[in-house]
Amino acid sequence: MSDPGKAGDLLAQIPTDAAKGLPPVHLWNPAFCGDIDMRIARDGGWFYMGTPIGRPAMVRLFSTIIRRDGDDYFLVTPVEKVGIRVDDAPFVAVSLQVTGEGEAQVLHFTTNVEDRVTAGAEHPLRFALDEQTEEPSPYVRVRSNLEALIHRNQFYQLVELAVPREIDGRVWLGVWSAGVFFPIAPQPE
């Protein structure tokens, strides 16, 4: 679907109490209405019909109705479900605050759409390695099965916080948060 009014139609369907919290998109199962020309770039930028969505409040509102089913992303309202493209992850973690030290350390992330999460069992960190470039891509789960790509600056902060820990006879560098150790990479020999 490439109807220019489609994005506005979706916004009109979001329940008005959505501003008080996240809408229960996991409970909504409307019919699939097709794909719209909306894309979330790897850097967290949102585009509609090839044009950047420049209003942060609109991006934030759309971000509250995103859902991932399998490998596909959708914007979901009580009456409509439309497919969108996501280049990598729908969010970017743009801020990291650290409290405590050692095993008592807690990592607090803020995303580009103002979600705040504390890394731990409920919001685990994941480190993927690109097989071709061997460049790491760090992620934190934000909600349900939606992740934020951790911005390079915050990843460097994580690397500075990394400590060694033996796991299954191998020493890994990783970080602690909320009592959970997240391995980043094997310690160099």
UniProtKB/TrEMBL annotation:
Organism domain of life: Bacteria
Protein name: DUF1285 domain-containing protein
Gene3D superfamilies: 2.20.70.10, duf1285 like domain, duf1285 protein
Domain DUF1285: 23-89, 90-184
InterPro entries for the chain: DUF1285, DUF1285_beta_roll_sf, DUF1285_C, DUF1285_N
Pfam entry (one): DUF1285_N
